[in-house]
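Figure 2 data, in text form.
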Amino acid sequence: MKGYESVRSDTLRALPHAGGAIELKHKAPEITFLGVQDQPDFATLFITMYPQDSVIELRSLKEYLYQWRNVIVSYERFLDVVFEHFVSVYRPVRLRLTLETRARGGISSRLTIDSDWAIRGGKEEFRDWVGMEDSW
């Protein structure tokens, strides 16, 4: 089995964005990786991005996410690594990722990370999610 260090960010490709404010939302409902107990985990990844100069080339996103299939990783580390890769490749104005896991042993989880949060170096200038859930 492989560790998360084996997942390559250079699989992700960027397409040029001509500019202008836009919110991009992508939903990847077939995320698969191995949990820390070497048991398969299944999840949905919700991506919300305010692009600057580039947007996500979706085929490369699919190939990138497929790399995780046989990787042993915790939910938290998965989200952190994907976040770091997206920020380095796309350099968005804002990036928000939410991971919803399928129930295993009667427990499911939902994790969110947002580049706007001060703890992540953001300015906390976007208030659109304060007090409400993401909707799809």
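Caption note: The radius of gyration is 15 Å.
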